[in-house]
Structure formats: structure tokens, C-alpha cells
Amino acid sequence: MNFYVPEGYVPKIDLRETQIAIKIIKDFFQRELTRQLHLTRVSAPLFVTPESGLNDNLNGVERPVAFDLKEGNRSAEIVHSLAKWKRYALKQYGFLPGEGLYTDMNAIRRDEDTDNIHSIYVDQWDWEKVIRKEERTRKTLEDAVRAVYKTLKITEDYMAYEYEYIGHVLPDQIVFVTAQELEDRYPALTPREREYKAAREYGAIFIEQIGKKLASGKPHDGRAPDYDDWELNGDIIVYYPVLDIALELSSMGIRVDEDSLRHQLAEAGCEERAELAFQKALLNGELPYTIGGGIGQSRICMFFLRKAHIGEIQASIWPADVMEAAGKAGIPLL
């Protein structure tokens, strides 16, 4: 059973007050995020067609939830994320360099192993901005990371004022470290153990260059080869004292250009994806250069409200033994 109850944990606010607090966080955070990154909200799809190439294939093994359509004898897939769709949408909406969009992304990940921080239901703010080719640099990436982290800090300050029990966990600054630097520092540890060590030491870290093979011959973590540039991406991870874990709050990166897409498709052994509609458009220079990311809505609400299980924030399906254990521990799962 993947369920952990921290010693002495008792929810500080009840179900009804939690629902009120969730809305406060979401309203405040997205307003601040749009201000920091200059974004405009747009509507987004819940499902796409397989042949469009728009679905995110994550680590390449997760199965999308698929269904057939009555009209047209076609199939559709529930999105895993909107990483590729956002880039297409920027072109369709006519966004210019320095302008961007964000949207509410809802997904079903049927192969997810559920635990205190993972659910088969995923809700994110997905954002994307147009940049110029010459802005595809580490500085551009790290400036965007600082803007997102500033939004997290300001939100924590606001929520700590609204709810005194929350207090402050986030440090003033986020620390940047590459996946290779972590492997060099902790060669005997697993990637997750390295994340914990670094997050515990610094409080908040951005691990860069996720997806590429490290000196050990293995990547720090999996990344689809056709959206992030593996040299210019990463995860925002914070130390979460309630569960004593490293908690990922956001994944982001500068997106692939024509050269990095070809290289990464070859590296991943899936060069046939170059024939899909989205990938073809990118290789033909028909899509803008962009930077973007996803920020977990339930994750940040769980973090800011100091909850022990993501099921205290979102309604999903949990194993029967987890529901029983949570009930005995006085933790209401939605």
C-alpha cells in the first residue's frame, strides 16, 4: 500500500474550509503567474486524435485513455499534457515574441502509481511563451524559473497571512543544479535520493538537463524527445517537511528546435514520430520557438495547505486499502 501518515498529522482545516482555501490559492496564484510571465488565458482540449502527434507520450510507456467517436469512424485520446498543443496554439492565436498563454489542463494517467502525491487525475496550469531563436539559452530558462518561483514565494506569503498555521517553508532563492552535477555529487544514490538530498539542503532547487543520458549512461528521469530540449529544461523541486520528501511542483523548459528534435528522436529510437503532423510542422519551420511548462494545481494546493495526501485536495479514485487507512487516520480523501 503506497500510503504514508506522518506521525502526529492532523488536518488543520476541515473539508469545507479546505475547499474555500483551494479556491483562494488558485485564484491568487494564476493572477500572479500571469503578471510575472505576461500570459493570456485560453481554452484547451481535453482530448486529441492520435495521428495529430499532439499528445504528450511522457516516458513512452504510459497508455493514453482512448475512445472511438460515433461520427467519422475516428479515435481520440485523453491528453497526458498539453506540452505540444500549446506551441501549436501560439501560432494559431498569433502570439508574438514575449507574449504567452496559459490554460487549465486536465488529464487522466491510467498507468500512474498512486501514493501521497500521485493520482491518476492530473490538473495543471500549462503555460507557453513565444521566444526568438537567439533566446534559446540557459539564461532565458533560468529567468523564467525565477519568475515561477517568485510566484510560489508570493503565494506562500499570502497564504501564511490568511492562515497562520501555514508559516513559511520556501527559501528566498532557488538553487540551480544540473542532473549531471547531482550524479557527480551523489554517485551511489538513485535520482530520487539525489533530489531529496539536494532539496533538503537548499529548500528549493531547479534540476536542469533532464532527459539526456548522464555519465552513468542513464538519464536522471524520462522526458519525451519531441517537446523539451534536454539541454534546456528541468524541474522545480522543493523540500516538503510534512512528508519529509522532495516535492516536484513544476516541470518546464525551452522547447525543441529543428536540430534538437531530430537529435532527440534519434537518441530515443523513435524517428518515425517525425512523420506525425505536429513534428512535421516543427521540422518545416512552421511553428514558433517557445518556452513553457506545467505547474501542478493540486500539488501546490497540497503544499501551501500543508496536507499529507493529494486526495485531500482533489477528487479521484483511490485503492480500497488506502481509503480505509486514511479513514482510520482521520484523513478525508475526496
TrEMBL record:
Every Aminoacyl-transfer RNA synthetases class-II family profile domain range: 25-319
Keywords carried by this UniProt record: Amino-acid biosynthesis, Asparagine biosynthesis, ATP-binding, Cytoplasm, Ligase, Nucleotide-binding
GO molecular function: aspartate-ammonia ligase activity
Pathway membership, UniProt: Amino-acid biosynthesis; L-asparagine biosynthesis; L-asparagine from L-aspartate (ammonia route): step 1/1
Keyword Cell wall biogenesis/degradation: no
A Pfam cross-reference name: AsnA
Annotated catalysed reactions: L-aspartate + NH4(+) + ATP = L-asparagine + AMP + diphosphate + H(+)
Superkingdom field: Bacteria
Compartments, as annotated in UniProt: Cytoplasm
Assigned EC number: 6.3.1.1
InterPro entries on file: aa-tRNA-synth_II (IPR006195), aa-tRNA-synth_II/BPL/LPL (IPR045864), AsnA (IPR004618)
Keyword match Membrane: no
PANTHER family for this protein: ASPARTATE--AMMONIA LIGASE (PTHR30073:SF5)
Similarity section: Belongs to the class-II aminoacyl-tRNA synthetase family. AsnA subfamily.
NCBIfam families registered for this protein in UniProt: asnA
Name of the protein this chain belongs to: Aspartate--ammonia ligase
Species of origin: Alitiscatomonas aceti
